[in-house]
From TrEMBL:
PANTHER family cross-referenced by the UniProt entry: AMINO ACID TRANSPORTER (PTHR22950), AMINO ACID TRANSPORTER (EUROFUNG) (PTHR22950:SF683)
Similarity field: Belongs to the amino acid/polyamine transporter 2 family.
Main localization (coarse): membrane
Compartments, record wording: Membrane
The name this protein goes by in its record: Amino acid transporter transmembrane domain-containing protein
Cross-referenced InterPro entries: AA_transpt_TM
Keywords carried by this UniProt record: Membrane, Transmembrane, Transmembrane helix
An example Gene Ontology CC term for this record: membrane
Organism in which the protein naturally occurs: Penicillium olsonii
Example GO molecular function: L-amino acid transmembrane transporter activity
């Protein structure tokens, strides 16, 4: 076992190239400080467990809305848009790993903002979410950097909403929807309070098997059933899917925002790689993750839309018949719960690290450690519960999160991160590849900003129209939310 590294060694590691940076057997971590046997081991994730954890973070929520996005765009544009979003976000995720290796002290997006512009950069990420900040008094202090956890909390809220939909489906609306959301929140709080990602790998394993089983069952079911459950049940029927559709601008950006939401786990990967035993294996884990994720998203989007057409439900698991709907939702519940638990854990861990960073209480089993940790997980769960209850429309919620927070966490910062690490290269190193990557990074920043503004506007209009619709669900409603289409 090697000795603890000196401070100057850690400082030198910040500027070392990705291929040389290594944390193996290091006990003084740049984020968590001294890791001892007297507390949780925050550096216990192997590369394969990391791949499973990443995959489960990505699959479980957004995938349920992809077929409905295809229904808005058409089969060909939907496929192309999905692949385009996949390409940009996969590149962004690779940039996250490289940036973390170059700057081990970075734990989350707000640290990136601080490196870009100092304190104003950190404040920018807080100011971006200042409208929502007033709803967080139980969860965080007035420190602006804590607001970057809001993205994960919103996604956790959509997870609670998905679980309530599943419980409504399998129980045939056995009780008030608000009760189901509350039950999901209680279970989430209990399991999200496990302190390290290494000990949560079993949650990711079980959740991934669950959600993939549900998706596979749904894909087979829509292919063999006579017609979708929401289609006319008498007379001849044929899927009315279209290769190309003509959506309005707001409809199109809302659908694309839904796809971005499906890939919006990018910012969470900072926290995941921070707990890896060997972050140099991040690219290996990411390759496995994205191969599974993109194949799954593309398959369910194309197959379910082709067989269901305009009668596809959102979430997609509602597209099967009454019996298969109950089966697929039953299979999916552990997977939906796992996603919510992991994301609630990550948002809680973010604030926890910020509150105790530099203190011995961060890695020691002290009363302050436990009180702070449980307060963070409880606060994150409460806010996610409020979000899930206040915006009960699945489509509207995922569009809003994808546009407002998904792009900001997956597009613009990553373009800036590549420029930050590569802009200052020597003249003789600036070859054609460098110029192409500069153009690409700037394009990602501009595209992300455009989609954030236009997509947020479209999602807000959709939510307002939903509340005006007499058939829409109200906040904290007891109505059955498992039959949305």
């Amino acid at each position: 076992m090697s000795e603890n590294p000196k401070q100057e060694d850690l400082e030198g590691l910040k500027h070392s190239p990705p291929q040389l940076a290594s944390y193996q057997d290091v006990h003084a971590d740049a984020v968590f400080g001294d890791i001892t046997d007297d507390g949780p081991n925050y550096r216990s994730l192997g590369w394969f467990a990391t791949a499973i954890l990443m995959t489960k973070t990505m699959i479980g929520l957004g995938v349920m809305s992809i077929p409905a996005a295809f229904d808005v765009l058409g089969l060909v544009p939907g496929t192309l848009c999905l692949l385009a979003v996949a390409t940009i976000t996969i590149w962004s995720m690779f940039v996250v790993g490289t940036f973390k290796l170059n700057h081990p002290e970075v734990y989350a997006i707000d640290d990136v903002g601080y490196k870009f512009f100092g304190t104003p950069g950190r404040v920018f990420f807080g100011a971006t979410f200042c409208i929502c900040k007033c709803s967080l008094p139980l969860f965080i202090s007035s420190e602006p950097e804590a607001d970057t956890a809001l993205d994960w909390i919103f996604v956790s809220g959509s997870g609670l909403l998905s679980i309530s939909i599943a419980l409504n489906a399998i129980s045939m609306h056995g009780t008030c929807t608000s009760v189901f959301v509350a039950v999901a929140a209680i279970v989430t709080f209990c399991l999200a309070s496990v302190r390290t990602l290494g000990r949560m790998s079993w949650v990711a394993w079980g959740g991934l098997i669950s959600i993939l089983s549900s998706i596979l069952t749904l894909t087979i079911a829509v292919g063999v059933q006579d017609r979708p459950v929401s289609a006319p049940q008498t007379g001849p029927w044929k899927s009315d899917y279209e290769l190309f559709k003509k959506p309005s601008f707001l409809e199109a950006v809302s659908a694309i925002s839904t796809m971005i939401f499906a890939y919006a786990g990018t910012s969470a990967f900072f926290a995941i790689v921070a707990e890896m035993r060997e972050p140099r294996h991040y690219a290996r884990s990411l390759t496995i993750c994205q191969s599974i994720v993109t194949a799954t998203f593309l398959t369910i989007g194309v197959v379910v839309y082709c067989y269901c057409g305009s009668y596809v439900a959102s979430p997609a698991l509602g597209s099967a018949g009454a019996l298969l709907k109950m089966v697929t939702y039953g299979l999916a519940i552990p997977g939906l719960l796992a996603s919510t638990i992991i994301l609630s854990h990550l948002s809680s861990k973010f604030v926890f690290v910020r509150l105790l960073q530099g203190s011995e209480h961060l890695t020691a089993n002290t009363p302050r450690h436990w009180i702070t940790w449980l307060s963070c997980t409880f606060g994150a769960t409460i806010i996610a519960y409020i979000i899930a209850s206040a915006i009960p429309s699945f489509n509207s919620l995922v569009s809003l999160v994808g546009a407002l927070l998904g792009t900001l966490m997956s597009f613009q910062p990553m373009g800036g991160m590549w420029l930050y690490d590569n802009w200052g290269r020597k003249r003789d190193e600036k070859k054609l590849t460098w110029y192409l990557m500069v153009c690409w990074s700037i394009f990602v920043i501009i595209l992300g900003t455009f989609l954030m503004i236009s997509g947020t506007y479209g999602a807000v209009v959709e939510i307002i129209d939903g509340y005006k619709d007499s058939g829409g669900s109200a906040a904290w409603s007891c109505a059955d939310n498992s039959n949305s289409v």
